[in-house]
């Protein structure tokens, strides 16, 4: 049981070849590109969703911040599609690996912060001290704000990893419990099955929400710094 | 040879059984050849099931079903131990 629970999270390799590269690249197959004005249904649906998301997320930024639209929209599409594909049976979800989430979070956060420091140095440094703090508290508050700034990329990565991993683990556990209970007591198995269905609905929501939260926070860090 | 030119134009189902080894050896196995094969396969599926006026959910679901099947094959080694058998 112990070994079985975590085998779905090991990086897939086949005969020493990294299969995980193919799995990370697979969502790109599901987003075809097109040069036409009127497209097929798949592309039209994706374009509609993309317009909705970009209007909702990029309207708060000024011109300089809106240059990040392509990056943030591809980020939310990638994380959303990867998380949703991970809900299919037997599939591997790359976003459960902390290494990948750190690789996404640290460059984006660092880009936003360094842009802020280079272009608006005084305003960026001013973020370390909220308005209206009493004078004796200033040294301590600067230290606390610095720590909270450097924790942002870690929090971004760990939040995504922990949420998706915990969801997958719960599904495995409750599914296993349902199967084991069918011989012992079918009513309890039915209740557990209903819990499993509710959990799966939650996981679909979590998959999309986590993508949204990740992108929203990056855009927030960007807004502070442009 | 005339028979070689004929061989190059035939598709797989039109090749006679005796000609099969020479047909296989004649195929383009360079990297660009293999990439071209993948590209042709992708566009064949895309133009038949997705890039149509009234595409249905089947176009996407077949891809996802194939993805699930491939992942099952990949993790068969671990799943083998979870069968309901007395002796594993």
TrEMBL record, chain A:
Its main location: mitochondrion. GO terms for cellular component: mitochondrial inner membrane; proton-transporting ATP synthase complex. It catalyses: H(+)(in) = H(+)(out). GO terms for molecular function: proton-transporting ATP synthase activity, rotational mechanism. Pfam families: ATP-synt_A (PF00119). Coiled coil: none annotated. It is found in: Mitochondrion inner membrane. Keywords: ATP synthesis, CF(0), Hydrogen ion transport, Ion transport, Membrane, Mitochondrion, Mitochondrion inner membrane, Transmembrane, Transmembrane helix, Transport. The chain crosses the membrane at residues 6-31, 67-86, 98-117, 137-158, 164-182, 189-222. It comes from the Eukaryota. It is a multi-pass membrane protein. InterPro entries: ATP_synth_F0_asu, ATP_synth_F0_asu_AS, ATP_synth_F0_asu_bact/mt, F0_ATP_A_sf. PANTHER family: ATP SYNTHASE SUBUNIT A (PTHR11410). NCBIfam families: ATP_synt_6_or_A. Belongs to the ATPase A chain family. Component of the ATP synthase complex composed at least of ATP5F1A/subunit alpha, ATP5F1B/subunit beta, ATP5MC1/subunit c (homooctomer), MT-ATP6/subunit a, MT-ATP8/subunit 8, ATP5ME/subunit e, ATP5MF/subunit f, ATP5MG/subunit g, ATP5MK/subunit k, ATP5MJ/subunit j, ATP5F1C/subunit gamma, ATP5F1D/subunit delta, ATP5F1E/subunit epsilon, ATP5PF/subunit F6, ATP5PB/subunit b, ATP5PD/subunit d, ATP5PO/subunit OSCP. This is ATP synthase subunit a. It comes from Capra hircus.
UniProtKB/TrEMBL annotation, chain B:
GO terms for molecular function: proton-transporting ATP synthase activity, rotational mechanism. One of its GO terms (cellular component) is proton-transporting ATP synthase complex. Keywords: Acetylation, ATP synthesis, CF(0), Hydrogen ion transport, Ion transport, Membrane, Mitochondrion, Mitochondrion inner membrane, Phosphoprotein, Transmembrane, Transmembrane helix, Transport. Its main location: mitochondrion. GO terms for biological process: proton motive force-driven mitochondrial ATP synthesis. It holds the Pfam family WRW. It is a single-pass membrane protein. The chain crosses the membrane at residues 55-73. It is found in: Mitochondrion inner membrane. Belongs to the ATPase F chain family. Subunit f, of the mitochondrial membrane ATP synthase complex (F(1)F(0) ATP synthase or Complex V) that produces ATP from ADP in the presence of a proton gradient across the membrane which is generated by electron transport complexes of the respiratory chain. ATP synthase complex consist of a soluble F(1) head domain - the catalytic core - and a membrane F(1) domain - the membrane proton channel. These two domains are linked by a central stalk rotating inside the F(1) region and a stationary peripheral stalk. Component of the ATP synthase complex composed at least of ATP5F1A/subunit alpha, ATP5F1B/subunit beta, ATP5MC1/subunit c (homooctomer), MT-ATP6/subunit a, MT-ATP8/subunit 8, ATP5ME/subunit e, ATP5MF/subunit f, ATP5MG/subunit g, ATP5MK/subunit k, ATP5MJ/subunit j, ATP5F1C/subunit gamma, ATP5F1D/subunit delta, ATP5F1E/subunit epsilon, ATP5PF/subunit F6, ATP5PB/subunit b, ATP5PD/subunit d, ATP5PO/subunit OSCP. This is ATP synthase F(0) complex subunit f, mitochondrial. It comes from Capra hircus. The gene is ATP5MF.
